[in-house]
Amino acid sequence: MIGLSSASLIGSLLLLLLLLLGARGISAARGLAAKSDLPLCDDVADFVTCPQEFVPRIFSRVDWEFVSQTKSPKLAKLFRRERKAVALLWVRQTSATIQRVMKEHAVAVRGSQDLEFTTEVKLALRYAELMLLCGALFLAIQSAGPLWLSGLALYADSLSRSITEAQQTFAAAAIPREIQTLGPV
Question: Quick check: pTM over 0.85?
């Protein structure tokens, strides 16, 4: 009896902690776009053309290993600060771009007649997952730096690219329907 109630209490506390972390991550992700002092991409296409190797390079330990071999504390401190700033900028831009993509999608969906409910639910779940990831990355980068977060960042990058591609595919498919509704010219 005592073992079961202890396990339930521990499980409940862990679930509550996870929910609090998720809520904090989502709120951090939503506020990321407003905090950037650098310009964000003006167009979704700017984000999509970002080189594939950009994210792996930001979160790579190779540069850190090179810098640490110099045995210069000032250089190491500068490297960590600059790499952290670049990683945070990437998270902000990813968050802002995906928010923009989803707003464009919401506008496009309002005029569409042939929506697939399951597809829209999957897209909404991916969006929520990505916003949670952006919030978690933001908090983790702030506290620990980007060097330990390569796998999570790569997953967030691939998820953001898939959401962007899905919206572009939807928008491209909607153009012929719009032309058909205009009637003969």
Answer: no
